[in-house]
């Protein structure tokens, strides 16, 4: 009998993961369902709703064969043997644990719906990043509404990196499956393991108890974010002392115990998970009476916020302490290169900081639409992770912000350029041409250390690169506003 998989949620996790499972397991039928009709329509069209290198090919090979996208949620949940749940788990904006705790509204309603429509035994897999002990809550909802049907809950956290998601799925470092330590729980673990074993070597499929799997995901993201905050903290010290953060991080990364990855100083980390997962970890620590541990992890986010405000202060203080009515070009809005994702991107806080000082901003990003940028700049913190129909409707477009599809257009008549995403194309721009079109003195604030600052200085720019020795010009300007 053909195994049937249904995935609730057709976002950054559900879409690519299910597409790769379908590709690697031709004997399994995979259906991705979502309440948002426009999103499912996009998955069924030639223009997929997310940009991810390699994703188009995978979807085109399987769609209509053993990969389907549908709005008929209940039918497919009813038919499935394994149900992946990858719905959003945003940070709560109000009530108990506001600003830290995960909001499990969407998770809970998914669980109740599964219990309502199920007519046969199901394996329910949590795929969203969810706080530790979510599985327990979900299990209670399912068993109390089970009508004699057996539900096994597994935790199978996602370790995708956007921009390389397809490669990450083809060759994962590890696949983690957590389940109950009962015979039924272990049988469910083996069932899911058999799916991944179609293409992942057995020794890379780790099985643990439920809590270990849930916590491993939060811990991994906290460790990664901590590395970025560590090198960003060093970048501030480098600027103050005349050291070069690239040299320092290269030297540090040469230590095999530390390793070279995730040691690039920048304007700050972004993305849908790091901040959310750390806030979640902090909240769980507080709830378990561990304030010292909570405060330790809080510091990772504090340094990230500090780095963003430090960057804005640097921009403003360099330009004679005012950017009012000055045009500033922002190159890059996504939180990192090779993705159109803007969730928690540092560009939002940098732009808001500049707008707060009355700057006029012109933004260019090769993958992000004007609508998305205006929405991001109009939104309150944490709104982005709730369904679109609950977000503020047509956002009040900020008059001070224009969005263009041409980097040269963005830079024309600008006083300064802020590079906020490390898109490869920013290394190849004709900076001589840009310099000639700008107001003088012309500034470049490189928030990702992508440009050759010496070459730019030869052209005539005043250059600020994070964590690098300062221009004479910048030395005279106070670093902190």
Low-confidence stretches: none
Q: Roughly what is the average pLDDT, rounded to an integer?
A: 92
User: What class would the helix/strand composition place it in?
Assistant: alpha/beta
Classified in CATH, the superfamily of the largest domain is NAD(P)-binding Rossmann-like Domain
**CATH class categorisation of the largest domain:** Alpha Beta
Rg computed from alpha carbons, rounded to a whole number of angstroms: 24 Å
How many domains, in number, for the residues?
2
CATH topology of the largest domain: Rossmann fold
Major sheet attributes: 6 strands, parallel
Second CATH tier, the architecture of the largest domain: 3-Layer(aba) Sandwich
Number of helices: 18
Could you estimate the helical fraction of the residues in percent? 40-55%
Shape: elongated
The order of strands across the largest sheet is 3-2-1-4-5-6
How many strand elements?
14
Strand residue percentage = 5-15%
Distance between the termini: 67 Å
Protein name: UDP-glucose 6-dehydrogenase
Catalytic activity: UDP-alpha-D-glucose + 2 NAD(+) + H2O = UDP-alpha-D-glucuronate + 2 NADH + 3 H(+)
GO cellular component, one term: nucleus
Keywords: NAD, Oxidoreductase, Phosphoprotein
Describe the structure.
This protein is of the alpha/beta class and 481 residues long. It folds into two domains: 197 residues, NAD(P)-binding Rossmann-like Domain (Rossmann fold), CATH 3.40.50; 255 residues, NAD(P)-binding Rossmann-like Domain (Rossmann fold). It has 18 helices and 14 strands. The strands form three sheets. A six-stranded parallel sheet has the order 3-2-1-4-5-6, with helices on both faces. Strands 11-10-9-12-13-14 form a six-stranded parallel sheet, with helices on both faces. β10, α14 and β11 form a beta-alpha-beta unit. The chain is elongated, with a radius of gyration of 24 Å.
């Amino acid at each position: 009998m053909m195994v049937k998989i249904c995935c609730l949620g057709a976002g950054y996790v559900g879409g690519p993961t299910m597409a790769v499972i379908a590709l690697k397991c031709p004997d399994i039928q995979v259906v991705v369902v979502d309440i948002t009709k426009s999103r499912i329509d996009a998955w069924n069209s030639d223009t997929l709703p997310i940009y991810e290198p390699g994703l188009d090919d995978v979807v085109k090979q399987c769609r209509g064969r053993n990969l389907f996208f549908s709005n008929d949620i209940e039918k497919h949940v009813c038919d499935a043997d394994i149900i992946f749940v990858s719905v959003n788990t945003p940070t709560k904006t109000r009530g108990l644990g506001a600003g830290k705790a995960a909001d499990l509204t969407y998770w809970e309603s998914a669980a109740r719906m599964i219990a309502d429509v199920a007519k046969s035994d199901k394996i329910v897999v949590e795929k969203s990043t969810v706080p530790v002990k979510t599985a327990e809550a979900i299990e209670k909802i399912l068993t109390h509404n089970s009508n004699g049907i057996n539900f096994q809950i597994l935790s199978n956290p996602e370790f995708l990196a956007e921009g390389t998601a397809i490669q990450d799925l083809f060759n994962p470092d590890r696949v983690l499956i957590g389940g109950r330590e009962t015979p039924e729980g272990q049988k469910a673990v083996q069932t899911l393991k058999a799916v991944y074993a179609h293409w992942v070597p057995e020794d890379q499929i780790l099985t643990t108890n439920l809590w270990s799997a849930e916590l491993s995901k939060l811990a991994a993201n906290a460790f990664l974010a901590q590395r970025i905050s560590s090198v960003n903290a060093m970048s501030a010290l480098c600027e103050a002392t005349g050291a070069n953060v690239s040299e320092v991080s290269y030297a540090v990364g040469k230590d095999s115990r530390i390793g070279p990855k995730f040691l690039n100083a920048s304007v700050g980390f972004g993305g849908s998970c790091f901040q959310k997962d750390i806030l979640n970890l902090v909240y769980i620590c507080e709830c378990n009476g561990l304030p010292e541990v909570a405060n330790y992890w809080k510091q990772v986010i504090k340094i990230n916020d500090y780095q963003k405000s430090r960057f804005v202060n640097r921009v403003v203080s360099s330009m004679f302490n005012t950017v009012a009515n000055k045009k500033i070009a922002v190159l890059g809005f996504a939180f990192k290169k090779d993705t159109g994702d803007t969730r928690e991107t540092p560009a939002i806080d940098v732009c808001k900081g500049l707008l707060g000082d009355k700057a006029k901003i012109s933004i260019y990003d090769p993958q992000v639409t004007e609508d998305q940028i205006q929405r991001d700049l109009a939104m309150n913190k944490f709104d982005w992770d709730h369904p679109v129909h609950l977000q503020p409707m047509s956002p009040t477009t900020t008059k001070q912000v224009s969005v263009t599809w041409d980097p040269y257009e963005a830079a024309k008549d600008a006083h300064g350029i802020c590079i906020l995403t490390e898109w490869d194309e920013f290394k190849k721009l004709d900076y001589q041409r840009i310099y000639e079109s700008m107001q003088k003195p012309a500034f470049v604030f490189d928030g990702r250390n992508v440009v050759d600052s010496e070459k730019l200085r030869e052209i005539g720019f005043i250059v600020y690169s994070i964590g690098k020795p300062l221009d004479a010009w910048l030395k005279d300007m106070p670093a902190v506003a």
